[in-house]
Amino acid sequence: MKKILALVALASLALPGLAADQATAMEIAKKNGCLACHALDKKLVGPAWNEVGKKYAGDPAAAEQLVVKVKKGTKGAWGPIPMPPNATVKDADIKVLVDFVLTLK
Could you report the per-residue pLDDT of 45-99, keeping only the tens digit for each? Predict the structure, then answer.
């Protein structure tokens, strides 16, 4: 957690708009339990978010596809462990998370 906070602080010095987006996304992720399975830069139960960003870079349909995957859950995209559906997470919050993840490389 200290590493995540340090990254947020560093980003806020370099890119104020990005830092605000990251802080908002991380707050949403924390509130909804996303960080139990995901981290920015390392695989936990699910893939690292920067790996997701790399995989979908340049794909104009990625944001819409990922919103559906987060909402409904997925199986097999990143290995044998399925991601459960996140039906109770607000659509607007999922969009913020997905848009943030797609900025990562």
Answer: 999 999 999 999 999 999 999 999 999 999 999 999 999 999 999 999 999 999 9
Quote helix, strand, coil % in the chain, to nearest 5: 60, 5, 35
Domains of the chain, residue spans: 2-101
Select from 80, 93, 71 the least CA-distant residue to 45.
80
What tokens were used for 2? 């200290």
Q: What is the pLDDT of residues 10-27, one digit of tens each?
A: 444 444 455 668 999 999
Query: Is the distance from CB of 101 to CB of 26 less than 8 angstroms?
Result: no
| Distance (Å, whole) CA 62 – CA 64 | 6
- Look at the domain 2-101 and name its fold: Cytochrome Bc1 Complex; Chain D, domain 2 (1.10.760)
Claim: this prediction has a pTM higher than 0.85: no
- Compute φ and ψ for 37, nearest 5 degrees: -120, -15
